[in-house]
Amino acid sequence: MPCLPNQGLAGNRRSDVRNRRTSSLPGLDWKNTMKNQRAPRYQGKITSWQDDQGFGFITPNGGGPSIFVHISAFTSRAIRPQSNDVVTYYLGVGDRGPRAEQVSFVLDRAVRATSGGAQTSSLIAAASFLGFVALCVFAGKLPLATLGVYCGASLATFLAYSADKSAARSNTRRTSEKTLHMLALVGGWPGALVAQQVLRHKSKKASFRTVFWATVFINCSAFAWFLTSTGNHMPPSL
Predict the structure, then answer these.
(1) How far apart are CA 111 and CA 120, in angstroms?
(2) Alpha-carbon distance 116 to 112, whole Å?
């Protein structure tokens, strides 16, 4: 049965009044509320971190299951993650369950400056040593081959570190630590220092670092001896 014109106008008026009343009530504008609502940001501690493979797990401050975190989720690459770091993050969902996203460190400026300073110091040490070797060569105190050995060994060592890091990420055959130490011992330790800081590889493991610095000491001691008159007058066959 068709409605009369007056009935249609009255219905429209009632609908308008009802809409105005509803929109004026606080808390009922749910569309805008949902649009403006942001996901909560959580805080937790990294309780497990596999630096070679670039992933770990975060334990939330409020308890609950550990959250997977990948190195690519961190907003800053200036600091390498490690166990016991406190972080904040958004909670996302990956192929294998929950995962942390947009992860940030909870650190003060002093800690950040210390981390950056250690990296800069290592790079300066490597460059300074190679520069000193070059100066000795140009001054006629060392043969040109000495500079070639250090530069070649450093390049080979850097490439070995890079290959080992890639192998760790892809779960393929790794370069043994013994090989890395031998490369450092024969003169590749400046390249190893650069690789450890630039690639962030083998820069935290205490046992590896102890042996590495032992190889640096032995190589530098041999170099210093070679600069002495006794070392310079050794027969070429030795």
Answers:
(1) 14
(2) 6
| Cα 104-115-217 angle, rounded to 5 deg | 145
Distance CA 71, CA 49 (A): 10
Enumerate the domain spans of the chain. Answer: 41-105, 109-232
Question: 180: closest CA among 52, 38, 37?
Answer: 52
* Whether residue 205 has pLDDT greater than 50: yes
Q: What angle do CA 170, 97, 49 make, to 5 degrees?
A: 50
Query: Which structure tokens are listed for 124?
Result: 């300066």
Burial of 236 (0-12, 13-18, 19+ CB in 10 A): exposed
The rounded mean pLDDT for the chain is: 79
Helix H or strand E encompassing 107:
none
- At 39, phi and psi to the nearest 5? -65, 145
Asked whether the whole model's pTM tops 0.85, one would answer no
Question: 41-105 maps to which CATH number?
Answer: 2.40.50.140
Put residue 50 in one of left, alpha, beta given phi > 0 → left and psi -120 to 50 → alpha.
Answer: beta
Q: Any long-range contacts for 110-117 (C-beta under 8 Å, 24+ apart)?
A: 112/78, 112/79, 115/78, 115/79, 115/80, 116/78
Tens digit of each residue's pLDDT (9 = 90 or more) over 116-141: 556 778 889 999 999 999 999 999 88
- Backbone φ and ψ of 94, nearest 5°: -105, -170
